[in-house]
Amino acid sequence: MTPPILSLALPSATGRVLSIQSHTVQGYVGNKSAVFPLQLLGYDVDPINSVQFSNHTGYPTFKGQVLNGGQLWDLIEGLEENELLYYTHLLTGYIGSVSFLNTVLKVVEKLRSVNPQLTYVCDPVMGDEGKLYVPQELVSVYREKVVPVASMLTPNQFEAEQLTGLRIQSEGDGREACNILHAAGPTKVVITSISMNGELLLIGSHQKNEGQSPEQFKITIPKIPAYFTGTGDLTTALLLGWSNKYPEHLDLAAELAVSSLQAVLHRTMNDYKSAGHDPESSSLEIRLIQSQDDIRNPKIKFKAQRYD
Fold first, then answer.
1. 3-state secondary structure (DSSP) of residue 113
2. Among 181, 199, 179, residue whose Cα is nearest residue 258
3. How far apart are CA 151 and CA 244, in angstroms?
4. Cα 234 to the center of its chain, rounded Å
């Protein structure tokens, strides 16, 4: 007799996450930045690596393999044939091609045929600071096909602008962008970083009931004079982790996620300085393993302010 799959027979109280993201052998981006934090928060996480690279692409060179849509579907079929396709959450990050993104949409449909309550958390990674780093045609696939099936979206300022067609130049614009995205599908939207007046703002929005105004809030985040890799992937993972524990309190989930992230970044900065490296001179790999206490039990240092 085949033994039961314990993550299905005795599911964790938190959930079972399928995470489709990139993977690097060395360093912390994509699944390397998302899986461990979610496991620390009590989730069973099954990663599918959309790419496997030696290191992230900011290094002088990188080598590795890219998974295509057909290979992704092979993995899904293998899981299905063994009745392993029950997930509470799907998490997606950087996706580099239209064909792979279209296969991800098939995966959403397949997972929801097994569990209609599946929560799909989508980080629509397309670019930053006015620059696209995916093919232009991906933007319309995200806007027209992905946003409508997502439960929660975590774009940055530039990505929210791409998805809504709205220039975000004020807090009011950020809130309006959330409203536009709610109207298209997701009940939870977190614009993770809006650059305004020398500060960073996170704006979150939770539409609890259709037709009602969403509950909206902001968190002000001081800018750190350095560039880190993997922070967006970590942020979205933490938002998934905490918002599932506090489903009615997206503001609290965001406070916990931001407080964890900032603790990780400050430790990273200090460790580079201790090693004699100027943190402002290059992109920094985050100190994820050394920060596990800050991920598991963050001290809330960044508070949400609700909009009336």
1. helix
2. 199
3. 12
4. 7
**Residue 24: in which H helix or E strand, if any?**
strand 16-24
Distance CA 273, CA 225 (A): 13
Q: How far apart are CA 29 and CA 26, in angstroms?
A: 9
- For the segment 33-76, what is each residue's pLDDT rounded down to a tens digit? 999 999 999 999 999 999 999 999 889 999 999 999 999 999 99
Query: Of 202, 121, 130, 184, which is closest to residue 159 (Cα–Cα)?
Result: 130
233 is catalytic: yes
Rg (CA), the chain: 19
Instruction: List, for residues 159-216, the tens digit of each pLDDT value.
Output: 999 999 999 999 999 999 999 999 999 999 999 999 998 889 999 999 999 888 999 9
Question: What residue ranges in 171-295 does DSSP mark as E strands?
Answer: 188-196, 199-206, 215-221, 227-229, 283-285
Give the E-state strand segments of 96-237 in sequence order: 119-122, 127-128, 131-132, 152-153, 188-196, 199-206, 215-221, 227-229
Which residue shows structure tokens 């690279």? 53
- CB of 194 within 8 A of CB of 168? yes
Q: Which of 44, 123, 173, 233 is catalytic?
A: 233
Q: What are the C-alpha distances in Å from 270 to residues 19, 62, 225, 287?
A: 30, 27, 12, 10
What's phi and psi for 257, nearest 5 deg? Answer: -65, -45
Phi, psi for residue 106 in degrees, rounded to 5: -65, -35
The answer for 218, left when phi > 0, alpha when psi is -120 to 50, beta otherwise, is beta
Nearest alpha carbon to residue 305 among 215, 176, 207: 215
pTM: 0.96
CA angle (182 as vertex; 141, 195 as ends), nearest 5: 80
